[in-house]
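Hi L.,

You mentioned the student needs an example of a multi-chain input paired with its predicted structure. This one should do, with 699 residues in total across all chains.
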Amino acid sequence: MIEFITGDLFQLIWNGLFVGSFYALVALGYSMVYGIIKLLNFAHGDIYMLGSFIAFVLLGSVIGFLGTASLPILLLVLLITMILTGGIGVLIERVAYRPLRNSPRLAVLITAVGVSFTLEYGVRQIFGPAPEVFPFRLSGESVEVLGGRVSVPQIVLMVIAALLMWVLQLYVMRSKEGRAMRAIALDPRATLLMGVNVNRVISRTFFIGSALAGAAGVMAGAYYGSIDFLMGFTIGLKAFTAAVIGGIGNLYGAMLGGLVLGLLESFGTFVLGGEWRDVFTFACLILFLSIRPTGILGARIAERM
Amino acid sequence: MTNTPRGRRVLASASIAAAAAIILAGCAGGIAGGGGSDADESGPIKLGLLAPFSGSESVFGEYMQNGAQLAVDEINSDGGVNGRELELVAEDDACDATASVAAANKLVAAGIEGSVGGYCSGATLPTLPIFSEAGIPMVIPAANSNKLVEAGLDNVFLINGTGTQQAAATLEYALKVGATRVAVLNDNTDYSKDLAVSFVEQAEEDGTLEVVLDQSVTPGEKDYSANVNNVMSSNPDFVVWTGYYQEGALITRQLVDAGYDGPILVGDGSVDRKFAEIAGEGYTDNVVATFTQTPDMLEGAGDWIGDYEEAFGSEPGPYSTQSYDAVRVMAEAMTDAGSTDTDAVIEALRGLDGFPIFSGPLTFTPEGTLSEGGFAIVSIDADGTFVLKDDLQS
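Structure written out for the whole complex:
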């Protein structure tokens, strides 16, 4: 009996952490962009979708050429996709957001929604509304851990996600460019006066955030196997929630928020049933924000980012 | 927030829209000058087709439009109906109750004399009073929620088996393979929920097997591990999924990965070649589905598939045949009636006796549903197509 409970418990935690690491990767982009220019980039989830479609095309041509694919090839595709989605993120900022930088916040928000729809239905025009099947699947054995099932692909993906977040953390906290980002989050005008090229730093932020979302998209494609033009919508909303739970604008908050959201969903489904999951999760969000409006790690308001 | 695809088909919005529809329909009657029956008698007979061409279900709109267009072309090349040509007018309902109301009014204003559309039950429901007010008979090819029947309107005919009939076929098969503990998952849309509720009711009434889990999942996601975990905890020997293939294939894969090795039965919304592709090789050996028989399962339908591919350059998909049949049924009734007069056409639809359609000979019940559900059990073969496994006739 006790073993049954620990087995279930471990499985719930593992499931939650696995989904949560996807949320965290996407939430990071949300949070960084908000931290720096106070924009809720609703098109961010669609960058995740674009990432999976770019990898779909790349992998498809690699497989057409070599006849097969493997994990190293997937990692290479992941890298190329990250660069491409990063570039698209920069382009979107340049075309859609920068001209509106000094407009009312609402105008930029609506533009972001517009960008989101443009990306979704643009992809729909090219690939059609039916889901596409990802050409390469991560597959592998499942192992029993503490009575729960953990599969090798899950471990691989979580390691990749953790690595990406670790590198990002190093970059933002240790490098000169990272310091510039944090400075802009603190006070854009003063940073400008200090001689920092604010536009370049903002572009870089969009690049990094979009690259991470693209990476999550590739990973989702390789793990779940089906991609569609609306797949970014739900995860975008979830990542936004994760960012808010963790404390929007805060780097560690986004990571923690993603994991917490994954766990809330996992336990909510188990205790209350699937149909109550979103009610439970979002009720927690409301409760959370009314008790702690800045999110879990939002207290360090003096230095957001 | 933005207009979310999730929850588009929830009943709450459907009923609000239905209320709005009744009000709008009053106005529309005035604009359209009484609707179909008064339309110009010399021009083509316009048939309206509401289907999703945008949004999450948009993949089905094209299948339906092509199927219907094929029938229209065939009938026109045979001389049309009562000496008049048929013309198909398609509108996008986006599988959304609000959009479908607007689209239905547009069709009424365009002067259609029959409706041969309706895919999402939640989006089709609020259009019933609009077409009813305007005196337009409806032959609904795909939507099959019991709520459409319960509306009790005499202009509404369903040529897809209803949820109740499909649920009965599901139960019949579960009993046949000796299932004792059944877990049921639905995706909270009208169609899916309806099927699940109906199955659970019939299973409880029958009493032979136990429903150990009856829950909903959120459509449009990729990770269903939390729901799968609940299924595994309930320890079932038979799993029923009543939603669409996009989620069904993911759930199947994740169930098998979690160690489930019993049968998984899916509803007709999951019958698509993509199901096996998404689930992946080796994951669909235990998957069966309830389905009305499709062209490739029927004798002599090879020609039909060939015609379809020639006309549209793509393979027919789910509900292509039903939409094709909806047009033929409507045309047959209009021919029998000798006019497009509302009452005469409805009378003629009721009078159809054994009219051949893909799912078998068609005779309507007094409620306007098929007298024979026509559901069979299909399984997935090695190359991913659904093939007939058990026609449930014995």
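You could point out the following to them. Chain B is about 45% helix and 15% strand. The first helix of chain B runs from residue 11 to 32.

Best wishes,
N.
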